[in-house]
Design brief:
The protein is an alpha+beta fold. The chain contains eleven helices and 39 strands. Strands 32-33-35-34-36-37-38-39 form an eight-stranded mixed β-sheet, sandwiched between helices. The protein has a seven-stranded antiparallel β-sheet with strand order 8-9-10-11-12-13-14. The two termini are 34 Å apart. It catalyses: Hydrolysis of Pro-|-Xaa >> Ala-|-Xaa in oligopeptides.
Length: 691
């Protein structure tokens, strides 16, 4: 460690874990306990060190002002139309949290503003779902970033609380029954951990303790469920996945022949046979067609048709075939008296960018496309529950802040539904490039650069994720815009483990093949130098969550390649990750240290276990928060202590810790502060000033 910097004392205990005949040192095991006095003292001293270092960064406050200005846009979510009402979240420029509005005719009024519940800004609206008729609204509200929410029901006409709280819910779907008197939700027993859940039926106004257990009893402890009811109340759809495995079981029940509290759920597909979602139009009977979006027997996805009376795979008939050049992302059904046939909007991901095709769902014929403003990404498509010809969806790309588009199936026209964001278009461009990974696999990346200036090389930031089948699609980011407008290059890598090229691409970077993800990232870093975008000594990396694991591996496997690294809410101790937070649910993605072969794979790349003394590691900033119930901050603490002890590099290893926030939704100002500090840290080590 350089003599000019003194890190907080972190005793190295003689803790060694015996793992299938392997001796695995764990000198900072004590930092797993957030309430240990030594951890509290270490954290306080790290916070003081961080603030002292931040004070030396040139332009730190200017970076924050720059990101705040770029973030000050009017944002609107996709609307949900229910009866005569339209529900929409809107965050006006300068607001910290969005407000939920309800629109009736030309009149619009606020229905829920979390700022009124908590002026400190630590309360967030996680999600919400109106009843079929639009008279009631179920909403999930959480505090301090924990995502451990409480469920409330509001009377839409008055805004008054009609029911709640129902606690022990987390990111649950809501399946309203017609009439708004009851709904299905996913909750857990009081004695159980975050990842042990059940499906319940709740009658509005009743005590949660009397809710009827509908599904989940006796199933695996790491099951995740979704629940949905068709708007006519006839069909109940349940999915059940083991952990984060994408091959969920799917069940269907006819609520006209079995009671809502004891539905006769019949399997559509068993677990482990592919990712399948059911789409049923209102008014569908047992022998009418229903559609499934599935990657069973089609890794890139296809659409099949069957009937509720015979939904098993043996009865499926292919309607829209798998494409060799794109991944089927979702299917939305439009139907009703305005249309002479059911129409399908099929959203695709082609090399991470979104496309939408329009199909006749009687025979699968492609009728056309929905034109998009550019090369970007879309979100979930919203339609009226009672069927109709309208659809709404969000769109964004590197130079376009999120906006909502409206599609009319009668005319094929698409146009803006929300007002244009009130900022000037960024002075940047983005292009797709390719390189070869270590095993010859083609890997793609988006490279954002200043428009109108061919000058190279430039200081560059590389970001990636490469996990859980998540696609790194083009989207607006104040961090990227600020960096590029300051003269830098920002690259986003599409790595194996993600979903950019389908389920085979995902599986090629998970479990025993996880090293492929890291090799892909390394290849992209080399390409940026070889293609002249940047040069050695001017490349930084950033990633969060699973992307934080990616950064941790990159800086331990190739410490001399990067000039700075930002590791946000990271997963870093792969020998013990499954004992903390939502770790047990990630075993399908990473493997388990309880298995001898999988343990060796995990230890082959686990960043915490590959920190070597007297290596010149690059400057590293770790970020973590006390409300993070997904990835425990212990990972960042242990890795930071290990690097501070081992590094011979001139740059610091720093720990930025926040209170009252977590892994997910947060206030706009706290998000700006976090990403601005990350950018200022990188800029300080690459010698870049704001535009």
């Amino acid at each position: 460690m350089p003599s000019s910097r003194r890190y907080p004392d972190a005793p190295r205990d003689d803790v060694v874990q015996e793992l299938h005949g392997l001796r695995v040192p764990d000198p900072y095991r004590w930092l797993e306990d957030s309430e240990d006095p030594r951890t509290l003292r270490w954290t306080a001293e790290q916070e003081a060190l961080y603030q002292a270092e931040r004070a030396t960064w040139p332009d730190a406050d200017r970076w924050r002002a720059e990101l705040a200005a770029l973030n000050a846009t009017d944002l609107v979510t996709i609307p949900k139309a229910r009866g005569s009402r339209i529900f929409v979240e809107r965050r006006d420029a300068g607001q910290d949290h969005p407000v939920l509005y309800v629109r009736e005719g030309e009149a619009e009024r606020p229905l829920l503003d979390v700022r009124a519940l908590d002026p400190a800004g630590r309360t967030v609206l996680e999600s919400w779902e109106p009843s079929v008729e639009g008279d009631r609204l179920a909403c999930l509200i959480s505090r301090d970033g924990t995502e451990d929410a409480t469920l409330w029901v509001l009377d839409v006409a008055t805004g008054a609380v009609a029911d709640g709280p129902i606690d022990r819910v987390r990111r649950t779907s809501i399946g309203w029954l017609p009439g708004g008197e009851a709904f299905y939700y996913v909750g857990r027993l009081a004695s159980e951990a975050l990842y042990q859940r059940r499906i319940y039926l709740h009658k509005v106004g009743s005590e949660p303790d009397t809710d009827v257990l509908v599904f989940g009893e006796g199933r695996e402890r790491t099951q995740f469920y979704t629940v949905a009811v068709t708007p006519d109340g006839r069909w109940l759809i349940v999915t059940a996945a083991t952990g984060t495995d994408r091959g969920a079981a799917v069940y269907l029940a006819d609520l006209s022949t079995s009671p809502p509290g004891c539905p006769d759920l019949r399997p559509v597909q068993e677990a482990g046979q592919g990712r399948t979602r059911v789409r049923i139009a209102p008014g569908t009977g047992p022998h009418d067609p229903m559609w499934l979006r599935t990657d069973r027997d089609a890794a890139r996805g296809r659409v099949v048709v069957c009937t509720p009376a015979d939904p098993a795979p043996g009865a499926w008939r292919e309607l829209i075939a798998e494409r060799p050049d794109a991944v089927l992302d979702d299917l939305t059904v439009l139907s009703g008296p305005e249309l002479d046939r059911p129409i399908g909007l099929v959203s695709w991901i082609r090399h991470a960018a979104a496309e939408i095709t329009v199909h006749d769902l009687t025979d699968g014929r492609e009728l056309g496309t929905v034109p998009l403003p550019g090369v970007g990404s879309i979100g979930r498509i919203s339609v009226r529950p009672e069927a109709g010809h309208e659809a709404w969806f969000p769109y964004t790309d590197y130079v376009t802040p999120p906006l909502v588009l409206h599609y009319d199936a009668r005319t094929g026209q698409v146009g803006p539904w929300s007002p244009a964001p009130g900022i000037d278009a960024p002075r940047m461009k983005a292009g797709l490039e390719t390189c070869r990974s270590a095993d010859g696999t083609t890997v793609r990346m988006f490279v954002a650069s200043p428009s109108g200036s061919p000058d190279r090389p430039r200081p560059a930031i590389l970001m990636g994720y490469g996990g859980f089948g998540v696609s790194m699609s083009p989207r607006y980011s104040p961090l990227i815009v600020a960096w590029v407008e300051a003269g830098g290059i920002f690259a986003t890598a599409c790595l194996r483990g993600g979903g950019e090229e389908g389920e085979e691409w995902h599986r090629a970077g998970r479990g025993p093949r996880k090293q492929n993800t890291f090799d892909d990232f390394d290849a992209v870093a080399d390409h940026l130098v070889e293609a002249g975008w940047t040069r050695p000594g001017r490349l930084a990396i950033i990633g969060g969550s699973n992307g934080g694991l990616l950064v941790g591996v990159a800086l331990t496997q190739h410490p001399g390649k990067y000039s700075a690294a930002v590791c946000m809410s990271p997963l870093l101790d792969m020998a013990r990750y499954e004992f903390h937070g939502l770790g047990p649910s990630w075993v399908p993605e990473y493997g388990s240290a309880a298995d001898p072969g999988q343990a060796r794979t995990l230890l082959s790349y686990s960043p915490y276990h590959h920190v070597v003394p007297d290596v010149a590691y690059p400057p590293v900033l770790f970020t973590a928060s006390d409300g993070d119930t997904r990835v425990d901050p212990l990972h960042a603490r242990k890795m930071c202590a290990a690097l501070q002890h081992a590094t011979s590099g001139k740059g610091p290893a720093l720990f930025r810790f926040e209170r009252g926030v977590g892994h997910g939704v947060r206030s706009a100002s706290s998000g700006v502060a976090l990403f601005a500090d990350c950018l200022a840290f990188i800029a300080a080590h690459l010698g870049v000033s704001p535009a």
